[in-house]
Design brief:
By secondary structure, this protein is mainly α. The protein is built from three helices and no strands.
Length: 73
Amino acid sequence: MTETAHFWSPVRTAYAWVHSAAHILSNHEEMDGAGVARRLRGLLGAMSRHRSKTGPLEPAIVRFLKVTRSYWS
């Protein structure tokens, strides 16, 4: 257990971000397209600024950001 303890904080951070993205895109609040885009853009910006907090998962976050932005239009 102690061998993997250093992974838990990055996993929690990355999971929270991806879960937030899924929640935004599910649009339970029934926002218009601009509202969804604004919230997702804010999340992606935070992920980009703080991606180093995900330690060894940072390459996966960078990939998530790249792929998500490639579908933006």
